[in-house]
Amino acid sequence: MNGVLTKGGKRYFMTLIDDATRFCYVYLLKSKDETLDYFKIYKAEVENQLERKIKRLRSDRGGEYFPKVFDDFCAEHGIIHERTPPYSPESNGVAERKNRTLIDLVNSMLDTAGMVGEALLISCHVLNRVPNKNKDKTPYEEWIGRKPSLSYFRTWGCLAKVNVPINKKRKLGPKTVDCIFTGYAHRALLIDS
Fold first, then answer.
1. How confident is the model over 144-153, as pLDDT tens digits?
2. Where are the domains of the chain?
3. Do residues 15 and 26 make contact, with C-beta atoms less than 8 angstroms apart?
4. Closest Cα partner for 128 from 137, 118, 138, 136?
5. DSSP state letters, 10-45
6. pTM for the complete prediction?
């Protein structure tokens, strides 16, 4: 996706979706050449936190997956890199549907300019915790192995109170600052507060 997604200058997003569970990761990128770096982060988390092995990667023919270094990395780690035929998004149906769902959710959430990236991340977070068609379990439950907690969910754009840092607090004065809720802080995958 082109255009600026975040106030931090992220212009693109990359989704990585487990074929069996449909659990999805979203990474926000400043440029497409960061794809391999974020794939390495994903691979490390999946292998170290979940003790799973990536065996196959299916991608479209986007230029971000063609550099020789990406192919070399996949070959070095025994990952089969499949590329879908050109101009055939139906060959990559799972990713195309997930991206479409994410974009539809983002569009429904947006009323504040410059918050596309944040809306994209929270949409992915919610979708991972909602059952898919024809399944009783959520992608999170299948991926992590336990039911997710939903008690911390809040409405996008609602009032949020943020504590003033101790070094900024005064005896007389506010202890919190009013903010707008735009998403959840990134945490380790296995911690679901």
1. 999 998 888 8
2. 12-146
3. yes
4. 138
5. --EEEEEE-TTT--EEEEEESSGGGHHHHHHHHHHH
6. 0.69
